[in-house]
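Lab notebook, entry 340. We have the chain sequence and a SMILES string for flavin-adenine dinucleotide, and the next step in the workflow is to get a structural model of the bound complex before anyone spends time on docking refinements. Request logged below.

Task: model protein plus flavin-adenine dinucleotide, output structure tokens.
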Amino acid sequence: MFAVSNVKINKPILIIGQGLSGTILAHQVLQSGLDVEIWDSPETHFTSSWAAGGIFNPVTGRKLEATWLADELFAFLFPFYEGLEKTLGQRFFYPMPLFRPFANEEMKAWLLARKDQIDHGFLRWADEGVWVSKSGWVDVASLLSASRQNFEARNIYFQKTFVANDLPGLLEKYDRIIFCEGFHGQQNPFWKELGFLPAKGQLLKIKSKQPSEDYILNKNGFLLPLGNHEFKVGATYRWDEFSPETIPEAQVELQQKLGYFQVTEFEEIDNLVGVRPATQDRRPFVGMHPSLQVGIFNGFGSKGVSLMPYFADAFVGEWLGKKMVHSEASIRRFSHLFSV
Ligand SMILES: Cc1cc2nc3c(=O)[nH]c(=O)nc-3n(C[C@H](O)[C@H](O)[C@H](O)COP(=O)(O)OP(=O)(O)OC[C@H]3O[C@@H](n4cnc5c(N)ncnc54)[C@H](O)[C@@H]3O)c2cc1C
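Result returned:
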């Protein structure tokens, strides 16, 4: 059985991985007054965070439903990133309206006929589509770089790759080891039984004077204004190959998306590629192993930006005996997989 840990924590926490998950968890640990060290593999390690669009958006699907736990997550997200910008002295949080055009006249009629049932406070209806509030984007690369500098200045960041043989000595030195390894987590012997379902994604960075820079456009993908007439266009999904290279089919798909957005004149300036740490039941993996002082903070799929702050707070709260991680995110749901 999993139990809420209510012991006093005297030794540092070791976090493995400085992608978005390890970074956000490390900041939360520091905010809670605990000591932390972070190990991260060299930059050549293939990640998700360095390719991310960084969008947060509380509305999902053709039926414009609010996302899972949207009220809780989005109330938490704004003060979290605003506070972190102050701590790091760096801007990376950009609230921005998001526009979802109706797919076609038929869909428009279908949605308008159900407007009263659909309405959930994140939507403002217009003739051509809906405006989504509480949306925007995080410049994940800037957040990660500024955090790394901050951790290095505190002497708590180390460029090191964890291997399982390291474990016995580490468990003496650290109170607990939390794995934030992104899709590499599926190779970790502690977590390989969990249902990872990684999804490779590709994204295009362009320069164009055609689209508006005032809002994110979301129609079969997204067009995200970065400023200075630069945009991110995304994103693709693949489940059959996970090489760190871009592939031509994905490139074609992204160019087609530009067609939907009626962008015909543009200059390609970059291609980004990563693997999302998605899961079979589309819920994160958060929690401690039932019998060892090792834990996992992973499985945030394509919604890391909006999910991680809330769940980092809940996870650290659980260690301190103050909170419980939501049952749908906690790895308590897999207790049958762990032999104790
Ligand atoms: C194309 C694309 C677009 C996306 N767009 C969005 C978006 O708009 N909004 C959104 O919320 N999300 C988006 N995502 C998803 C987002 O990137 C992820 O949710 C998030 O970044 C996952 O972060 P992570 O830290 O779990 O994993 P990763 O970013 O993969 O980081 C894992 C880290 O752990 C390190 N590591 C792994 N194993 C070890 C080890 N043994 N020892 C030491 N270090 C190790 C790696 O080097 C890496 O630094 C997108 C993803 C892709 C690919």
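Notes for the group: The domain at 199-276 is CATH 3.30.9.10 (D-Amino Acid Oxidase; Chain A, domain 2). Worth checking against the assay data. The chain is about 30% helix and 25% strand.
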